[in-house]
Specification:
- With about 375 residues, the protein is an alpha+beta fold.
- Helix content is about 65%, strand content about 5%.
- Strands 4-3-2-1-5 form a 5-stranded antiparallel beta sheet, with no helix packed on it.
- Strand 3 and strand 4 form a beta hairpin.
- The protein is rod-shaped, with a radius of gyration of 41 Å.
- About 15% of the residues are buried.
Length: about 375
Amino acid sequence: MDFNVKKLATGAGLFFTRAVQFTEEKLGQAEKTELDAHFENLMSRADCTKNWTEKIYRQTEVLLQPNPIDHTGARIEEFLYEKLDMKAPSRVTNGELLGQYMEDAAKEFGPGTPYGSTLVKVGECERRLGAAEREFIQTSAISFLSPLRNFLEGDWRTISKERRLLENLRLDLDACKTRLKKAKVADAKAAVAPDFQETRPRNYVLSASASALWTEEVEKAEQELRVAQTEFDRQSEVTQLLLEGISSTHVNHLRCLHEFVEAQAAYYKQCHLHMQELQRELGRLPNAFTLNSAHAMAAPGSASDGVSSPVETDTLKIEEVQAPATGTRKAKVLYDYDAADSSELSLLADELITVYTVPGMDSDWLIGERGNQKGKVPVTYLELLS
């Protein structure tokens, strides 16, 4: 018990000494040991790395999980599974959930109807997009978020701990310097001994005793200063080594950033392929608007107008179609398109073709020409140019 009391008293005294030194430095009443410029630059670089790493980490989490409520729930769930030493189950993405809703709706509306069959196709695509998103989130969490979190929760905490210890040792060092300086001033005053002839013998003896005490105090302060300087120098070297390790952290984070970009590029490429496939499949499905238009034009009395039914365009001989003298336009292809039959023209994204209409043709289609090739092309795959 006595040992604990002494330890507590020593700690309280040390804390009070540091507080006094810190206050006097702020008031400009005490000198402060300045670190060299290289050390200051290392600390500034480390602080900058920590601040931006934290911001990038938080915003990447928001990017991968936009909903703050879901994000908080996911963090709590991951924390609980981590504490229980269990693997967290895969979370269903919003795309997968949307795809499931669309497929369930298609069953209610009837998968044989135009709307129901389209819901099935779109729902399957959304499920594939959701699966790609889940894979991207998992890959990014492992290759990018984990290294950033390990730095913030591991390396940076160690650096912060050593820096706080270095600051405390610096306060102890400067307190020893201040104590030694005061002891030397008092010793110098006590060294000026009064004249024995002009001073009472008792005062002369007291003055000599005080001088000896201050000399002993100076020696003690010098010894404490040497110990404090040694501990400060040792801690300074340890902290500097940790701060210089920030360069290795940058190299590691750079590699992780490249892996994140690769994962993101693969994810968007996969999504683009899924959407292109969906557009091709939707182009082959019966369109309710086209069917309604065909029935309206095939109704009694419409044949007298001299306009062919859109259904007849299926039997139209493309090779006999001639481009009109006026009315042709240039168009840029937006997506790849594979021709469903010999009457259609296959397209490649970003190529330029000539397009025009023919009487009786469905408004969803145009005649496209590319060199000697000719065929029907879907309007939704084109960007008409002036």
